[in-house]
């Protein structure tokens, strides 16, 4: 599904491409930092023992 | 006779404007102390490269020292990456480990990067240039230089100048945006702070795990993340004190010196004096405003669901300008209520901004080539 969306955006206007970068970029930053958040919690618990 | 006076006869009005720009940057650095470590060398580099015949850059087919530095340090992306090693060695992630939730503000305050990218495309810039303009909002000079050197070499000068200038102007840019988006009551919200012990091993393991995570999730971001985490591992390992100090002092100072003057060398009049430069500098300001707004509004959104409210100004600290943003926000809170003490939370969000900005840079580096022609 993501690949289909990507293919459509690749053939789209510059504005559509920018919008795609914005949405995926913001979500991506949140997802990666959410992963770090979980990782810090786990490491804090594991390494305390 | 004409050969003897070639220095005078070859000066153009555009060169004269660039001397004024260079002198203005030097004045800002010395008189106003706006990021003097970068703006002074950039200003002097801008003068050097626009002097008659531009011998420092290239003359009769022979590269001058600034062109050699540009090719060796910027085109290869070496200088910004070495700066990351130094920043990593200076970074103390403890405030983040004590309050991991602050990491989300480091994500929210990157909103300006992407909003500005969109605005730049709307103004007619191509996607790669727009991404390089947006990244000014990372409030992180080396990330801005790294991305611009990949996507928009022609605009490296204005993008770098905008990034460093606005970073130094955080105390002037953030307060009005925050005041416009928050009430007096919200700015005075007190937040609980509990001092907890962080195991030393966490500080050692963190940079290693983050490097692996970046390597698998966004391999293209590894130069940025990897060098930052390498510097941090040197610091936290506890066995490389000499190297840690060398990274924080000698390496940081030498590379900053060379980086500044080399960036100045990209400010040749024919490349710098165009309408796009003014737009880029204005868009940089827009990026910082959107960053601040993104962080504050995200904190207000969280407050709708939380019992213990967050002071929404903390959201604005999610930018990478460390520790300036945290200080500004803490001072604003104290002005509203001398008993509101949010410095630790602000520092935690500000440290998160340093991680968030390079992750955002990595996202831009990964996504834009998929779409740009």
Tell me briefly what this model is:
The complex is a heterodimer of chains A (49) and B (373). Chain A has 49 residues and is an all-alpha fold. Chain A has helices at residues 2-10, 14-48.
How would you characterize the overall build of this protein?
The complex is a heterodimer of chains A (49) and B (373). Helix content of chain A is 90%, strand content 0%. Chain A is mostly helical and 49 residues long. Chain A has a domain of 27 residues. Chain A is elongated. The model of chain A has no long low-confidence stretch (mean pLDDT 90). Chain B has a two-stranded antiparallel ribbon. Chain B has one domain. In chain B, helix 12 crosses helix 18. Chain B is mostly helical and 373 residues long. The model of chain B has no long low-confidence stretch (mean pLDDT 91). At the A-B interface, helix 1 and helix 2 of A face helix 7, helix 8, helix 9, helix 14 and helix 21 of B.
- Please state how the strands of the largest beta sheet of chain B are arranged side by side: 1-2
Shape of chain A: elongated
Coarse morphology of chain B:
globular
- Structural class call of chain B reads mainly alpha
**Rg of chain B, Å, rounded:** 21 Å
Mean pLDDT of chain A: 90
Main interface by residue count: A-B, 30 and 46 residues
Which sheet architecture does the biggest sheet of chain B show?
2 strands, antiparallel
Quaternary assembly: heterodimer
Number of domain modules of chain B = 1
Helix content of chain A: over 70%
Counting H and I runs of at least 4 residues, what is the number of helices of chain A?
2
Q: How much strand content do the residues of chain B show?
A: under 5%
For the sheet with most strands of chain A, the description reads:
none
Please state the average pLDDT score of chain B.
91
What is the count of β-strands of chain B?
2
Q: Separation of termini of chain B?
A: 51 Å
């Amino acid at each position: 599904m993501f690949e289909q969306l990507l293919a459509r955006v690749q053939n789209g206007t510059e504005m559509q491409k920018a919008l795609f970068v914005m949405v995926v970029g913001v979500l991506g930053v949140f997802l990666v930092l959410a992963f770090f958040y979980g990782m810090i919690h786990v490491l804090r618990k594991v390494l305390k023992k | 006779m004409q050969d003897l006076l070639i220095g005078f006869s070859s000066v153009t009005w555009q060169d004269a404007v660039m001397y004024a720009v260079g002198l203005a940057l030097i004045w800002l650095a010395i008189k106003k102390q706006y990021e003097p470590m970068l703006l002074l060398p950039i200003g002097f580099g801008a003068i050097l490269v626009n002097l008659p015949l531009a011998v420092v850059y290239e003359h009769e087919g022979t590269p001058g020292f600034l062109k050699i530095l540009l090719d060796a340090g910027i085109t290869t992306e070496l200088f910004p990456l070495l700066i990351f090693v130094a920043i990593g060695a200076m970074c103390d992630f403890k405030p983040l480990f004590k309050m991991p939730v602050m990491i989300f503000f480091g994500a929210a305050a990157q909103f300006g990067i992407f909003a500005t990218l969109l605005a730049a495309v709307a103004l007619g810039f191509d996607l790669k240039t727009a991404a390089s303009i947006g990244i000014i909002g990372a409030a992180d000079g080396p990330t801005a230089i790294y991305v611009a050197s990949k996507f928009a070499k022609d605009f490296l000068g204005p993008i770098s100048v905008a990034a460093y200038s606005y970073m130094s102007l955080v105390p002037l840019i953030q307060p009005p945006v925050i005041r416009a988006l928050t009430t007096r009551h919200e700015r005075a919200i007190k937040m609980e702070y509990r001092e907890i012990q962080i195991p030393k091993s966490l500080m050692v393991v963190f940079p290693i795990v983050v490097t692996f995570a970046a390597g698998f999730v966004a391999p293209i971001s590894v130069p940025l993340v990897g060098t930052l985490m390498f510097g941090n591992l040197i610091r936290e390992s506890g066995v490389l004190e000499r190297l840690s100090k060398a990274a924080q002092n000698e390496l940081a100072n030498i590379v900053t010196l060379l980086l500044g003057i080399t960036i100045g060398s990209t400010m040749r009049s024919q490349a710098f004096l165009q309408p796009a430069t003014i737009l880029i500098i204005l868009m940089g300001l827009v990026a910082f405003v959107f960053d601040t707004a993104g962080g504050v509004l995200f904190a207000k959104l969280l407050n709708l669901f939380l019992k213990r409210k967050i002071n929404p100004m903390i959201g604005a600290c999610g930018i990478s300008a460390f520790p300036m943003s945290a200080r500004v926000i803490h001072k604003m809170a104290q002005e509203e209520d001398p008993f509101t003490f949010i410095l630790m939370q602000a520092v935690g969000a500000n440290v998160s901004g340093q991680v968030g900005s390079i992750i955002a840079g990595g996202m831009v580096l990964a996504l834009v080539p998929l779409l740009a022609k």
